[in-house]
């Protein structure tokens, strides 16, 4: 099966940015979240998990247990890599942890915004649940090999 997007010309940076923002703000959007920790012997221990997300005020918001491996890794290192879409229409985000907010203490813009976009509400959950607010530092987007040049859309937290 051929990819119908393969017959089109590469998107402009403006179109890629618009497509990326549309993907980020789509309701019920899941994201792959990659984090890492360091084992006792000094080796890196990567971890990858799918999570629901919300795009609120130009930030990725995740809801999870602070004690989960992803929660512990993000809280300890302050960084993660996120991926949206499939391999032929991907958005890669390198992000920094801006803040952690206990679900029970979250301001309405985070709690209600997350529940509305993610299509589930963690507020009735456990006491260890937190919202992690991630600030994108670098964003890349591409569909096919012809879009690899120019895939960088954001650098140092600024749209190009």
Q: Strand order of the main beta sheet, please?
A: 1-2-3-6-5-4
Strand residue content: over 45%
Mean pLDDT: 93
Please give the share of residues in helix.
10-25%
Total E-strand runs: 8
Taking pLDDT < 50 over at least 5 consecutive residues as the criterion, the unreliable ranges are none
Protein name: Pyridoxamine 5'-phosphate oxidase
InterPro entries: Split_barrel_FMN-bd
Q: What's the helix and strand layout?
A:
Elements (H helix, E strand, L loop, with lengths): L12 H13 L3 E10 L5 E13 L2 E7 L3 H9 L1 E8 L2 E14 L5 H11 L10 E14 L9 E4 L2 E2 L1
Description of the structure:
The chain is an alpha+beta fold and about 160 residues long. It has one domain: Roll (Pnp Oxidase, Chain A), CATH 2.30.110.10. About 20% of the residues lie in helices and about 45% in strands. The protein has three helices and eight strands, in the order αβββαββαβββ. The chain has helices spanning about 15-25, 70-75, 110-120; strands at about 30-40, 45-55, 60-65, 80-85, 90-100, 130-140, 150-155, 160. It has a six-stranded antiparallel beta barrel with strand order 1-2-3-6-5-4. A hairpin with a 2-residue loop joins β7 and β8. The N and C termini lie far apart (about 35 Å). The model has no long low-confidence stretch (mean pLDDT about 95).
Question: Notable features of this structure?
Answer:
globular; 3 helices; alpha+beta; 6-stranded antiparallel barrel; 160 residues; Pnp Oxidase, Chain A
Quick structural gist:
With 160 residues, the protein is α+β, with helices and mostly antiparallel strands. The chain has three helices and eight strands.
């Amino acid at each position: 099966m051929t990819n119908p997007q393969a017959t089109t010309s590469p998107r402009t940076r403006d179109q890629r940015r618009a497509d990326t923002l549309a993907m980020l703000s789509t309701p019920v959007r899941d994201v792959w979240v990659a984090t890492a920790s360091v084992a006792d012997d000094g080796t890196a221990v990567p971890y990858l998990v799918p999570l629901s997300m919300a795009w609120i005020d130009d930030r990725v918001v995740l809801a999870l247990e602070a004690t989960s491996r992803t929660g512990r890794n993000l809280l300890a290192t302050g960084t993660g890599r996120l991926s949206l879409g499939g391999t032929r229409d991907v958005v890669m985000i390198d992000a920094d942890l801006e803040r952690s907010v206990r679900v029970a203490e979250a301001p309405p813009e985070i709690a209600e915004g997350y529940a509305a976009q993610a299509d589930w509400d963690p507020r009735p959950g456990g006491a260890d649940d937190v919202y992690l607010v991630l600030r994108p530092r670098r964003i890349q987007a591409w569909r096919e090999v012809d879009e690899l040049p120019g895939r960088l859309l954001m650098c140092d937290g600024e749209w190009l």
